[in-house]
Design goal:
Elements lengths: L1 E12 L2 E12 L3 E5 L6 H9 L6 E6 L2 E2 L10 E4 L11 H11 L4 H15 L14 H13 L5 E5 L7 H17 L4 E6 L2 H7 L2 E6 L2 E6 L1 H6 L4 H6 L6 E8 L5 E4 L2 E4 L12 E7 L5 E2 L8 E6 L2 E4 L3 E8 L2 E8 L9 E6 L5 E4 L7
Parallel strand pairs: 3-8, 3-9, 6-7, 7-8
Antiparallel strand pairs: 1-2, 1-4, 4-5, 9-10, 11-12, 11-14, 12-13, 14-21, 15-20, 16-20, 17-18, 18-19
């Protein structure tokens, strides 16, 4: 059963079309992440669901109720913004209680909800403090708590961790995941441009571009079987290698790029795939190095151009078939600029895209 349903949604600002004929179904209790680069329409879509933007056409349902023209307060949602938006003159407890008091909730019920939210978010010792006395991470916990006390079935998060440093983001990411697990049957829709947040938090990810959803799938599918070249290039850090070349399937299927020839008998082609110009994608982390490359279906010798030590691993830049090609090796393995090394990979883990349509072959 859908918890949030967006049907044939259009949104325009004057002549500028931002969202066009967008459809989305979010299941009850699901954690859905809207992922994409700045300007792709992900926050705009979230604001439409929240009722903060009036849509041009289409319908929005929350918990089977048509809320297309309902006010935000009547949609049964809790929202957490990028900015904490806390009242500076109020204590944490006051911030948590403010919306409930305005809604006419009784004192005993307010106290009960605040206690529950504070326990879930581990902010019990902070209730008497004011926002100025809190760290960024603590303020964001309070902002999440203010949404939690509303006791609703759908929570909307608009890049809630983007103002925090990397360590705090990692800590709060885990807390948000735990929170979703504890709040059974609670639906969360989460906007981010951070793919690590998306991959670690989501049950499903909707990757957006130009106001449209490019692919909607679980993180494993998004990462391993991207539907088009854009999705493949957007997901993954460091990003996927693309080699320009051609696929031929007469007799023995193969990819050819100059002197590079890759046997594609193990590659799972999509139905209806055709021959011709293509982009061959293989992720840096899927490439074996040195002795480990010997058993790979495809091997080659490359020259090391640039070495980027990254602690636990090292990113090595080289060229394959005259095109840039990077791979990751264990950070404890010495690699020097200028040396020739053996690499290998399994074509079954590659992703190949039609040159014109950019769709997966």
């Amino acid at each position: 059963m859908a918890s949030v349903s967006v049907k044939n949604l259009f949104l325009s600002f004057g002549e500028v079309k931002v969202l066009q004929d967008l459809n989305l179904e979010v299941g009850r209790g699901e954690f859905l992440v809207l992922l994409g680069s700045s300007g792709c329409g992900k926050s705009t879509l979230l604001n439409c669901i929240a009722g903060l933007l009036d849509i041009s056409d289409g319908q929005i349902f929350i918990s089977d109720k048509n809320v297309t023209w309902e006010e935000p307060k009547d949609r049964g949602i809790g929202m957490v913004f990028q900015s904490y938006a806390l009242y500076p003159q109020m204590t944490v407890e006051g911030n948590l209680a403010f919306g409930l008091r305005n809604a006419g909730v009784g004192r005993a019920e307010i106290a009960k909800r605040i206690k529950q939210a504070a326990e879930l978010l581990h902010i019990e010792p902070l209730l008497k403090r004011k926002p100025a006395q809190l760290s960024g991470g603590q303020r964001q916990r309070v902002a999440i708590g203010r949404a939690l006390v509303r006791d609703v079935d759908v929570f909307l998060f608009d890049e809630p961790l983007s103002n925090l440093d990397a360590k705090l983001r990692a800590e709060l990411r885990v807390e948000i995941k735990r929170l979703h697990q504890q709040l059974e049957n609670t639906t969360m829709i989460y906007v981010t441009h951070d793919q690590i947040e998306a991959l670690t938090l989501a049950d499903r990810i909707a990757i957006m571009r130009g106001g449209a959803i490019q692919q909607l799938a679980d993180p494993h599918t998004i990462y391993n079987r991207p539907i088009n070249k854009y999705v493949a290039g957007f997901i993954g850090s460091p990003s996927i290698n693309f080699l320009d070349g051609a696929v031929t399937r007469d007799g023995k299927p193969r990819f050819t790029s100059g002197e590079v020839v890759v046997d594609l008998e193990r590659y799972p082609f999509e139905d209806g795939s055709s021959d011709g110009a293509c982009a061959f994608g293989v992720r840096p982390e899927h490439i074996a190095f040195g002795d480990a490359a010997a058993d790979s279906p495809f091997t080659a010798e490359v020259r090391v151009d640039v070495v980027e030590p990254m602690g636990s691993d090292t990113l090595v830049w080289s060229k394959l078939g005259g095109q840039d090609f990077r791979f990751r090796v264990d950070g404890q393995i010495p690699v020097s600029t200028g040396e020739n090394v053996r690499i290998g990979f399994d074509p079954a883990r590659a992703s190949i895209f039609d040159k014109k349509t950019e769709l997966r072959l």
